[in-house]
Write a structure and sequence with these properties.
Layout lengths: L4 E5 L10 H15 L7 E4 L3 E5 L5 H8 L5 E10 L3 H13 L5 E8 L8 H15 L3 E2 L6 E8 L2 E5 L2 E6 L8 E5 L5 H11 L3 E8 L7 H13 L5 E8 L1 H10 L2 H22 L4 E3 L12 H8 L6 E2 L7 H10 L3 H4 L6 H4 L11 H8 L4 H10 L2 E6 L5 E2 L1
Parallel strand pairs: 5-6, 5-7, 10-11, 10-13, 11-12, 13-14
Antiparallel strand pairs: 1-3, 1-4, 2-3, 4-8, 4-9, 7-8, 12-15, 15-16
Bound molecules: adenosine-5'-triphosphate and magnesium ion.
Length: 393
């Protein structure tokens, strides 16, 4: 038995009322992009489903790619066939013999209103045929096998198996956000969770050469290549952060260095977010994880921006974050040893309850504003794409 089509179900999109058309269109475009290496594949984009016609491509390879495309609730492997009832009896029998279980239920839907039989009538022909020709029993409440038949204008669709999709919304339908990417474990996981919701990300990274080594950029590229499964092209801006960091350590007590440094990072992130038309900033902070992530620290750091700061990991345990990073294949890259601009200047006793006025006073002692605009104009941008072409702009 050969599957020829994958049926894509939208799930949560159903709640989207009049925006639905845009959502479906964007999802269709994202599916096409995700499958761009399979030129034989064609799509039928309909109001209630998208059909991916395999045209000979391997169904498992395609399913594996589609399960990471956000906005898909479920995927079903489908046989498309002639809707003649005798043909349906044969094809459904073949399909159900392929499955394991003791009980079954037939579910029929008919959107082709010209078809001579009603849904109920179809079920009442198909189910007895299965009972006669197999040892299966009917169970309408908890069947082991659900045999679905859909009669459409263009023919009949038969499917027994569905797998869960990534859920969320199609990428690009929820706007764009500037994400702070460090190269650690947390920030790629935070990026994945946002992408899964349909939020498109651009990345900002603070590099402090020669304190941080050039290998960090390779590491970021490798991480982003993994995230390309969820967003096929990702823009990364690298901010030269050395000068500003040296100024901080020259002018501020060590215990305040991290707080002020993070206030600077937020200022940069907001400035770049504005330039790039992003609606919010996001990062991998998790409440209580380190000194700069106590609520008191977060409040003082957050004070520099009015932009919403999205922190998808805020209530997650490190163990659960690690589990996700293993699932999305970023863990092994994240744990490669590297020097981050935070770890280099790691103070012995960072403030867990920094004082806002003190921060403001300290920041007045050096001209950070012009350093920020200088660093922004000296920043470098890379585009990391699915096919690994890096453009330096
Ligand atoms: P991660 O949190 O990704 O494991 P980390 O633990 O080194 O890395 P933290 O000190 O926990 O980072 O910082 C919290 C968040 O701040 C990170 O998740 C990331 O979003 C952001 N961040 C930290 N360092 C950088 C950097 N050099 N460039 C960009 N963002 C950074
Ligand atoms: Mg962290």
């Amino acid at each position: 038995m050969k599957y020829d089509t994958i049926m894509v179900r939208f799930g949560e999109l159903y709640t989207k009322g009049k925006n639905r058309k845009d959502f479906i269109w964007t999802l269709g475009k994202n599916i096409k992009n995700a499958l761009s290496n399979y030129p034989n594949i064609t799509l039928d984009i309909r109001y209630d489903h998208i059909y991916v016609n395999l045209n000979g491509e391997d169904e498992n390879q395609i399913l594996d790619i589609l399960k990471d495309v956000s906005g898909i609730y479920a995927l079903s492997l489908v046989i498309k066939t002639n809707d003649d009832i005798e043909n349906l009896k044969n094809v459904t029998l073949d399909a159900i013999k392929n499955e394991e279980g003791k009980t079954f239920k037939v579910d029929t839907k008919r959107s082709n209103k010209k078809y001579p039989l009603h849904s109920e009538e179809i079920t009442r022909i198909i189910a007895p045929n299965i009972l006669r020709n197999t040892s299966l029993k009917v169970d309408v409440h908890h069947p082991d096998i659900r045999l679905n038949i859909e009669i459409r204008d263009e023919g009949a669709y038969i499917f027994t198996r569905s797998v869960k999709g990534a859920g969320g919304y199609p990428l690009g339908t929820s706007g764009k956000v500037m994400h702070m990417l460090s190269g650690g474990i947390d920030s790629p996981v935070a990026a994945y969770l946002l992408m899964k919701r349909g939020i498109k990300l651009e990345m900002i990274h603070f590099a402090a050469p020669p304190y941080t080594n050039i290998g960090v950029i390779e590491k970021l590229k490798d991480l982003l290549t993994k995230l390309n499964r969820f967003q096929d092209s990702i823009r990364l801006t690298i901010i030269p952060f050395t000068k500003i960091q040296e100024e901080i350590y020259k002018n501020c007590p060590e215990s305040y260095a991290i707080t002020i440094m993070r206030r600077m990072m937020y200022r940069f992130s907001e400035a770049l977010a504005r330039q790039r038309n992003c609606k919010a900033i996001s990062n991998g902070e998790s409440a209580g994880q380190v000194a700069s992530q106590t609520l008191e620290s977060m409040q003082v750091i957050n004070e520099v921006t009015n932009f919403p700061v999205l922190r998808p990991l805020v209530a997650m345990d490190k163990i659960d974050i690690i589990q996700i990073s293993k699932k999305i294949d970023t863990y092994e890259i994240s744990i490669r040893p590297f020097e981050d601009c935070c770890t280099i200047f790691d103070p012995k006793n960072p403030k867990t309850r920094p004082d806002l006025n003190k921060c403001k006073q300290l920041e007045e002692t050096f001209d950070y504003k012009s350093m920020i605009s200088e660093a922004l104009s000296n920043s470098e941008t890379l585009i990391i794409s699915k096919d690994k072409v890096d453009d330096i702009i």
